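Hi Q.,

Before the meeting this afternoon, I wanted you to have the 4'-deoxy-4'-aminopyridoxal-5'-phosphate prediction in hand. No need to reply - just skim if you have a minute. The sequence and ligand are here:
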Amino acid sequence: LWQDVPLAPPDSIFKLTAAYKVDPYPKKVNLGVGAYRDDDSKPWVLPVVKKATAKLLNDDTLDHEYLPILGLPEYTVAAAKLILGPESPALKEERAVSVQTISGTGANHLGALFLARFYKFNGPARIYLSNPTWANHRAIFRNVGIEPAEYPYYDPKTIGLDFDGFIGSLKDAPSRSAFLLHACAHNPTGVDPTPEQWDAIADVMLEKQHYAFFDCAYQGFASGDLDKDAWAVRRFVDRGVALLVCQSFAKNAGLYGERVGALHVVSGDKSTAERVRSQLSVLQRSEISNPPAHGARLVSLILNDPTLFAEWKQDIQTMSGRIIAMRKELYRLLTEEYKTPGNWDHILNQIGMFSFTGLNPEQAKAMVERAHVYMTGNGRISMAGLNSHNVSYFAESLDKVVRG
Ligand code: PMP
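Predicted structure with the ligand bound:
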C-alpha cells in the first residue's frame, strides 16, 4: 500500500527557514518568513495579548466546552465590525454571515468550499488569482475542485501594479467570474491599487457581475490604521459588489499559532443570508465540527473592551511603525550611502510586511549563497526580518549583488 505515493517537495518558505537555522554564519539574516520580529529578530507577544491572556487565566467562569459550530458569537460579531466597519450597511441590514475559522487559511478554504458547492460559475468552476499571489491560494482552490486562473497584477518593469493588464483581465473574463483580491498589503509584492484604481476595478466587477473573494490577512499592518486597510472591502460593500472576506488575526494580533480567523459572506438581503448561514454551518460541521476557543476568546476580549482595543491599536502602530522605519532606512542606505544602481522608490512605496526587491532569481540565489541572506527566489523579502542591527549588512549585500 502507498508505494505509488509520490514524494512531494517541501514547502519553500519552511525549507528556507530550516536552512537558515543550521547556517552557523554570525551575520545571517532570515527574510523568508512572513511573521513579525522585533528589533532583536525575536517573535513579539503583543502587550495587549499578554493582558488579555492574564484576564482569561483569572476568569473562573470559563470551561473547555465546545463552541457553537459557527464560533464564539461575541468574537464573530466584533470581527465583522472590524473589517466591514461598525456602520456597514451589510451589518445594519443583517445580510452578512460570519463564521469563525482556522485563521485566514481556514477562511480561504471554507470560502472556496462554499463557492465550489453553491456559486453558479459561468462555465467550469474557476477562480482568478493575481500573478503572483500567496502560494497557498492555488492549492486551497484546487483542493475543492476550482481551477485557478491568473490575472496580471505585478509589472516587473515598473516594480508596480500592472493596472491595465488587471482591468483587461476583468473585462475579458466570462461574466460572473470569481476574482481573488488581496484587501491590503498584497502578498508577495507589497503593491496595492490606489483608491481610484480600486474604484475602477469595482466598476468593471459590477458591470460584469464578477464575484470578489477578498483575502484580508494584514488589516492594520499595511498602514498602521485598521480602518484605512479595510477601505477597499468597505467600498466594495457600499457599491454593491457581491463579495466575501477572509480575515486573519495571525499577523495583526501576533496570534499565528492560535489560528484565529473568520469568513464573512455578504449577501443581498437578510433571508438569503439566513440560507447562506445554514449551509456554512453544515460545511463547517463536517470539516471541523466547531472552531477552537482560546484565540477567539483573546481577540473577543481585545475587540470588545475599549481600553484593550485602544492598546491593541498602539501595538499595531509599534509593528507597522517599525516596518515602515526599516523601509525608510533601507531606502536611505541604498540611495545615499551605497548609491546602488537602479531606482529603489518601490522600497518606500510598497505596503505591508513584504517587499518585492526587483532582484532576479540569480541575484536572489546569490544573496542566499554569498551573503547568507535567506530570501525567496522571486526576490521577495519580509521587511519584518530587517532591524537596526542587520539592515546595513543587508543593504551592503544587496549592493554587491546588484553590481554583480
Ligand atoms: N492570505 C494571505 C495573503 C497570507 O499572506 C496569509 C499568511 N501568510 C494567509 C492568508 C493566512 O494566514 P493564516 O492562516 O496564518 O491566518
